Give the backbone structure.
Amino acid sequence: MNENLKHSEITQKIIGCAFEVHKFLGNGFQEVIYQRALAYEFRKAGLDFAREIEQEIFYKDLESPIGTRRADFVVAGKVLVELKALIKLEDVHLAQALNYLKAYRLEVGLLINFGSKSMEFKRLVLTK
């Protein structure tokens, strides 16, 4: 992986953990099963993470939030991790993850799909 990418050390560890989970479980489980297994691997790898933290969503100049959203993980306070267990990732899933990055005010995210035969991931960067 390119060492010049922002937070590459963290994202490399996350991806390694995800591959370990997929290697053991394969595909076919619900997202929450992968989430629990990934939390185990994160702890084993010494990664600091928060799971399913609720984030308020603001709209334009409104002072009150218009709702909330829970990210699957925020790792090291820097990288958003959104999990899927789908046969195929689609553009709507990428757009959704980019919106979560914006809501959490983070620059880097990983969209990880455990549902296909081979685990797939997309590295996302929110540019300002």
Q: What stands out?
A: Strands lie at 49-51, 54-57, 67-70, 73-75, 79-84, 108-113, 120-125.
